[in-house]
From TrEMBL, chain A:
GO CC entries: membrane
GO molecular function: ABC-type transporter activity; ATP binding; ATP hydrolysis activity; molybdate ion transmembrane transporter activity
Protein name per Swiss-Prot or TrEMBL: Molybdate transport system ATP-binding protein
Organism of derivation: Aquabacter spiritensis
Highest taxon above the source species: Bacteria
Boundaries of every ABC transporter domain copy: 8-238
Domain Mop: 297-367
UniProt keyword terms in alphabetical order: ATP-binding, Cell inner membrane, Cell membrane, Membrane, Molybdenum, Nucleotide-binding, Translocase, Transport
From TrEMBL, chain B:
Topology of this chain in the membrane: Multi-pass membrane protein
Keyword presence, Cell inner membrane: yes
Organism this protein belongs to: Aquabacter spiritensis
Pfam families, per the entry: BPD_transp_1
Lineage of the organism: Bacteria, Pseudomonadati, Pseudomonadota, Alphaproteobacteria, Hyphomicrobiales
Name of the protein this chain belongs to: Molybdenum transport system permease
């Protein structure tokens, strides 16, 4: 056994150094389960962090995964000795090997107990009809699915995904995302997922490491970071909050499910779901308006009780409000964007109880996120 | 036996043996050298590459002159020669092999170097993240992906050895069955006015050269198609 100085159950990474003109000084610690997104604009160092964790790039620092030391001041474990699966931006399949042999390239000859089985990967990723083809005869989406399967079959203890969808067009992305969601639901494997696309992150991630210019701005549960007015996420044009809820009922006639989140209940257009299943909602700040009195007749389905927790001026004419759901404001957080004029006219202030009218509510993820996820 | 055949066959056989053995040795020496030239991150890499490429521009006689001295009894030849039961490596088949390897080295290293460079970092990184040791990654990824480079290297190394003249003349002389290769035989035929034999040999070498160049072009075309 490697001497274990890292805490089991956590992933700890800290890297600093220069690559050309780019300076990286990033450190974070996240639980070794579920999907953690490394999120930030292009050039913020997301990929470099991931490469350092895989041992492909060497910078000073430490990397401890689930109790194992991969790198510290004294040792540096080479890439091929680290139990990672790495999915690159381009599928990077071996062109001289068939799909089957690509999949099996990293598979150990003697599979460890509780391993990810070949047949299971083939089924989850829908690869059965591709096995004997060469990589040249696959579509972009098929190639990326093979790359994911190949990484999984190397029996990793940590899956690193570097913008695996960014080289694909919209339609192909939509084809692959359900596969990834299924994976994260079916496999108990921690994932670090690099992305600059919030829509992808909302669908897949439980936690966020927010990077900017080589530094970690914040690290924590997705919804908590999305609703933190001190972070850039809450103040962007398309700011939104993800809420994890449980299906309470399904109304077949209107095609709506009732989804319970902490402090509120939302009606959401959605395909039928099992009662008790987990679903994730995404609510954009711009779709939330506030009323002091309960509107009596409105086409808006979702009007929920909330309390104003904080107020941040966004631009000269707009404010971003953080709301706590529930009459006491103790439930999940929501963002609302209102004009300064309405803010003044309604005399809104921190602590005030309001009715939040939510115009647009959409499911962020079709599949269920892994357990142990929602905003504990 | 046909006297014409008897006059030429020993030279043909010797040349083929020399070229085959040289090509084999060149692959053994050239592969790691080319790999190192692509992967190494040291400043003295380019000077080494330049030394390897020297035979491209040096007059073969210059190379042959230094080889003659190096292979002689007072230098390397005197040290290595006894292992083969020889006093010297100059004017021997073994000496010719050594000379040919050095003379044809750039023709093997260059295509291999280009091919390894074309493989790029990514497939090797992928292999590493799939737990392949550098050794396994080299054999299972780099070598198969560089296959067109190996083909070119073999063809060029072989052909260039068949065509050498100056170096052989300097270090090998003209010993039938030992150092008298085709190009020397042709020179000999012309000197002794055996025009018929000279014609056959010369035409044969033209056909051979044509086939080599055609083969190279076809290999290149296939590589381009595979890469597309």
């Amino acid at each position: 056994m490697t001497q274990a100085t890292g805490a089991p159950g956590t992933i700890e990474a800290a890297f600093s150094g220069r690559i050309g003109a780019f300076a990286l000084d990033a450190a974070f610690s996240v639980p070794a389960r579920g999907v953690t997104a490394l999120f930030g604009p292009s050039g913020c160092g997301k990929t470099t962090v991931l490469r350092c964790m895989a041992g492909l790039t060497r910078l000073d620092g430490r990397c401890l995964v689930d109790g194992d030391v991969w790198q510290d001041a004294r040792q540096f474990r080479p890439a091929h000795r680290r139990p990672v699966g790495y999915v690159f931006q381009e599928a990077s399949l071996f062109p001289h090997l068939s799909v089957r042999r690509n999949l099996l390239y990293g598979a150990p000859l003697v599979p460890p107990p509780r391993s990810i089985a070949f047949d299971e990967v083939v089924r989850l990723l829908g690869l059965a009809h591709l096995l004997d083809r060469g990589p040249h005869h696959l579509s972009g989406g098929e190639r990326q699915r093979v790359a994911v399967g190949r990484a999984l079959l190397s029996q990793p203890r940590l899956l690193l995904m570097d913008e695996p969808l960014s080289a694909l067009d919209r339609a192909t992305k939509d084809e692959i995302l359900p596969f990834l969601e299924r994976l994260h639901g079916a496999l108990d494997l921690p994932v670090l997922y690099v992305s600059h696309d919030m829509a992808e992150v909302e669908r897949l991630a439980d936690r966020l490491v927010l990077l900017e210019r080589g530094r970690v701005l914040a690290c924590g549960p997705l919804a908590a970071l999305q609703s933190n007015p001190d972070l850039p996420l809450a103040t962007t044009r398309d700011a939104a909050v993800s809420l994890d809820g449980i299906v309470e009922s399904y109304d077949g006639a209107d095609g709506l499910i009732a989804l319970a989140v902490r402090g509120a209940r939302f009606l959401v257009p959605a395909p039928p779901g099992e009662i008790g299943a987990r679903r994730r909602l995404s609510i954009a700040a711009g779709d939330v308006s506030l009323a002091l009195e309960m509107p009596r007749a409105s086409t808006i389905l979702n009007v929920v009780d909330a309390r104003i927790l904080s107020v941040t001026a966004l631009r000269s004419h707009e404010m971003t409000l953080v709301l706590g759901l529930g009459a006491d404001g103790a439930g999940d957080r929501l963002l609302a964007r209102v004009t300064r004029r309405s803010f003044v006219q309604l005399d809104l202030r921190v602590g005030l109880a309001v009715h939040a009218q939510v115009k647009g509510v959409a499911l962020a993820a079709a599949g269920s996120p892994p357990a142990g996820v929602s905003g504990a | 036996m046909d006297p014409l055949f008897d006059a030429m066959w020993p030279s043909v056989r010797l040349t083929l043996e020399l070229a085959a053995l040289t090509t084999l040795l060149l692959l053994i020496v050239g592969t790691p050298l080319a790999w190192w030239l692509v992967r190494a991150r040291v400043w003295w890499k380019e000077p080494v590459a330049a030394i390897v490429s020297l035979p491209l521009v040096l007059p073969p006689t210059v190379l042959g002159f230094y080889l003659l001295i190096a292979l002689g009894p007072d230098a390397l030849g005197g040290l290595i020669g006894p292992a083969f039961g020889l006093r010297t490596l100059a004017f021997t088949f073994e000496g010719l092999v050594i000379g040919s390897v050095i003379y044809s080295l750039p023709f093997v290293v260059q295509p291999l170097r280009n091919a390894f460079a074309a493989v790029g970092d990514r497939p090797l990184e992928v292999a590493a993240t799939l737990r392949a040791s550098p050794w396994r990654a080299f054999w299972s990824v780099a070598v198969p992906l560089a296959r067109p480079g190996f083909l070119s290297a073999c063809v060029l190394g072989f052909a260039h050895t068949v065509g050498e003249f100056g170096v052989v003349l300097m270090i090998g002389g003209n010993i039938p069955g030992e150092t008298k290769v085709l190009s020397i035989a042709l020179y000999d035929f012309v000197e002794t006015a055996q025009w018929r034999e000279a014609h056959i040999l010369a035409a044969g070498l033209v056909v051979f050269a044509f086939c080599v160049i055609l083969a190279m072009a076809l290999i290149e075309k296939r590589t381009l198609k595979a890469g597309a």
